[in-house]
Each structure stands twice: as structure tokens, then as C-alpha cells.
Hints:
The chain is of the alpha/beta class and about 240 residues long.
Amino acid sequence: MSKVIVANWKMNPSTLAEAKKLAKESDLEGLIVCPPFPFLEAVASTLKAAKLGAQDLFWEEIGAYTGEVSAGELKNVGVEYVIIGHSERRQNLGETDQMVAKKIAAAIKGGLKPILCVGETRAERNAGRAELIIERELETGLSLVKGREAEVIIAYEPIWAIGTGKPDTPENMSEMVKFIKRIALVDKVIYGGSVTSENAEKFLKKKDISGALVGGASLKGKEITKIVEIGKKYN
Ligand code: PGA
């Protein structure tokens, strides 16, 4: 099974010119590039080998929903994948498991491949509640797509490892991936949280991991290229 690498640009870069430049540098087979909404179209026309993803969507199809973007609108500009339930949205915008579930269902209905992010905080981990949290996020998150769970890529992203430069250990990640596959009928689980070209190999060489979701390191063409190359070694 080939490894999937997701480049989550988050709210970067600030200009269209920079976005186009980064897209050119990131046009790699096996990579899913997820730029901010305003750059989707330009990035779509730049990418030839890489696939296009979005960082969010809304569950309704059309209408009076100010600021929101639908699955159909994303599909129209060439989007194939969509990140849903990222912890930054859960924490900063109050996105709940129920909202995440509606978004997952809307993505599948609209013909997009969802990437569902799950993960525990440091306090939850320390309190021995990590598995409980993941179980709840998966159970509710996938509750509206029963029978089609395998179409959803799960990104295990421990919140304490995101943007901290302190990734999870490959051993713990493996345990969590096994746990996720035990409790949900999913095929692909990828890891996210401070993945760089320096540490990517430790994660990607593990058989049970299907790839990586890369934030900070995806903003540098050279870094993301190296990570994709490492992923190819373990396809
Ligand atoms: P990071 O972000 O690689 O910067 O830790 C990962 C993510 O939040 O998707």
C-alpha cells in the first residue's frame, strides 16, 4: 500500500505568489496539498502530479451560510481530499464531534475523500484517557457514514505533538494506530504532529502507518520533497 503524505499549509502563506511557488515545489506524486481556500484554484492549476485537498468544508450543499464552503464548491475547483476535525478547529472554533460527523458525511456524499483528525491533549494523555478520547472522536465522527468508514483516512494527531517540535514516539504511535484499527472499520491511518524530514523515516517505516500529515515542514519545498521521498521507500 503506498504511503500518503498530506501537506497541511494551515493559514499560510500570505500571498498568491508564494502559494504558487510552494505549489510548484510541492508538485510530487504521492502528496496531497491542502492550501487555504483563496489559493485552491491557483494551486489546482499548478499541480500536475500532486493531488489537491482542502482544510475544511461545511455540511450544507448551498444557501445562506456566510463564510462557509460546500463539498460541491470544492469539487468544482479540483479538490479531491478534505481535512476534517483538525484539533485547531476543534479548539479555536468549538467544532464538536457532531459537527465533524456531519462534515464527514457531506464530504462522502459530495464525492470528496475525508481525512478525519483525531487526537488527545497532553492532560488527557497524562490522565490515561487518550484511548477514550480517540474512541469518542471516531465513534461520533464516523457515525453518519456507517458501512463507508473505509473511505475515510484517519489522521492520528496527538494535540501535544502538533507544532511543538516534539513528535510522538513511533512505538506509541503504532499502538494508537493498532487501537484505531481495532475499534473502527478503517483502512488507512496516518500520523501527524511535528513530522520533519529528520524524523519522518522513524514513522513511515512502520508497516501499520499509511502516511503522514505534515504542517510546518510542508511550507518548505525541500523538506516536503524529502518526506515524500522517504515515504516512497516504504511503499
Ligand atoms: P505540524 O502540524 O506538522 O506543524 O506539527 C501537523 C498538523 O497539525 O497537521
